[in-house]
Amino acid sequence: MKMTTEKTQKGYRYMITGLMLFTLMLTGCPLPDTGTVTEMQGEYQEDARAVLNGKVKQVACGGAFSMVLMSDGTLWAAGHNEYGELGLGHNSNVTTFTRVMSGVKEVACGWYFTLVLKTNGTLWAAGRNDRGQLGTGNTNNSNIFVQSKDKNGNNLTSIGKIACGGSHSLAVRTTGSLYVTGWNRYGALALGDTDERHFFEKAKDQNDNNMTVKAIAAGDEFSMAIKTDGTLWGTGYNIFGQLCTGDRNDRYKFVQAKDRYGEYMTDVKAISCGAFHTLAVKSNGTLYAAGDNYWGQLGNGEGAEFDELGEPINNPHETLFIPVASNASQIAAAGYLTLFVKTDGTLWATGHGRWGQLGTGDNMYRYGFDQVLSGVRTIACGGYQSLAVKTDGTLWVTGTNQYGQLGTGDGGDIYRFERKIALRSYKNNLYVCADINVSPDGPLYSNRSALGLWETFGLIDILDGKVMLRSYATGLYVGGEDACTSRAKANRTEENFEPFHLYKNGSVVAFLYEGNNKYLRYDSFEAEQASPGSDTYFYIINAW
Questions:
Q1: Which CATH number does the domain housing residue 249 bear?
Q2: How many CB atoms within 10 Å of residue 33?
Q3: Where in the sequence is the domain holding 20, given as residue range(s)?
Q4: Among 64, 135, 144, 316, which residue has the least CB neighbours within 10 Å?
Q5: Alpha-carbon span 229 to 239, nearest angstrom
Q6: Would the pTM of this model clear 0.85, i.e. be above it?
Q7: Could you tell me how far CA 257 lies from the centroid of its own chain?
Q8: pLDDT tens readout for residues 276-297
Q9: How far is it, in rounded angstroms, from Cα 302 to Cα 300?
Q10: What is the pLDDT of residues 462-518, one digit of tens each?
Q11: 222/243 Cα distance (integer angstroms)
Q12: Pairing label, strands 277-282, 287-292
């Protein structure tokens, strides 16, 4: 992801200029995906069919768009599309996930462009190409996926891994050779100069040795690579020490990264880059971080300090890797935030949260890691949004949705990880809907045979076994009244929401209202049944 930079008299200040996306899972009980796609009709039929026919394998975030790769190899996209970065053959924004192509092994997103690695090892690209980041030999944008080429004009083949920076691209062949293209103003391509490239060229280290690489990552004008021996190397922009060299000097070829004791980093298994910070995980699960820490994105409890006028009085950063967490299994960095998944499946977040991208339920930044979800398998994040995939393959999202990058179809921002669902009654096989008049006091009923906007809800995990429901029709949260017999209504705001306990029995769930400790009925959504049963059970259906 690329960020714009503006210098001020007090130091570097950064304005995030785009949006990205992510997905997550529910704490406590795993949620079932049941029901048949053929009975779904209406506005979300195609999206529901796509998700129910497979599980999410990988997610990726661009400047203001999102990509979802399904386990069947189909690629789906939503969000900003001014430069054709979605690869759909047009330049209009898309607010629900739309199928792009099949036969995909991996996807990576830059600021306004996308790289796709197909299962046959070929590399394809779409979107903005003003710096040659698509590797097509020119600087023409493309709203369809076209094949990337080497400096001899041959299509790239035998590709094993890909990564995107703000305006440059990295690709690793199955032999471990690293190829680069795009913007090179600060040496992000490691070619020993500052000339941008429009074809993919082979990169070398500081001693002109070929790089044999097993993992790569890229930030705003810098690149990181793990060699097959587990050592970590960096090149490019280094204003905050994100290359971990102990200084802030840019590099034009790969140099080896160091820890806070000045020792070279070894035994590294995973890396990720934000705008100006870097994450690394060693084989023992220790998470290291370095670079810009203005918004607390390093998660070490520190960040910017401000005077009485709200102006920053320091410019926090780390030029060598410091350990910040343990038991890390998955990491994601973008913009000014950091996410990581522990080996127990819990998801933790720190850094910039102005748009809800941390999933903490508010719009505040964090200087240390907060737990935001559990049962998570893989993650992705951008400057304004985050995505997570549960162990059951379901997609969860949080953050801003200005361009539709969350794929929910409603354009509303989200401050906690949310899964788009429909509820179908076990008793009458009909969908629960919000009041058709969109009245804040309208009750919920299980009385609809078709799936559309009125029947979709956001299922939100607030940890401790509790969930919230948000109606996509009203934009409000479902709450129960305080009377002994209470009827659930989509009439609550974020400030006065009411949680429900989720009860699971096999493939069905029930909602327990804390106000009177009773379960919601299918026909009236009144909380009046003392124990769960056929009148209170619902199937959870994916509604993407």
A1: 2.130.10.30
A2: 17
A3: 4-28+41-412
A4: 144
A5: 27
A6: yes
A7: 26
A8: 999 999 999 999 999 999 999 9
A9: 6
A10: 877 789 999 888 888 888 765 445 667 777 776 677 789 999 999 999 999 988 899
A11: 8
A12: antiparallel
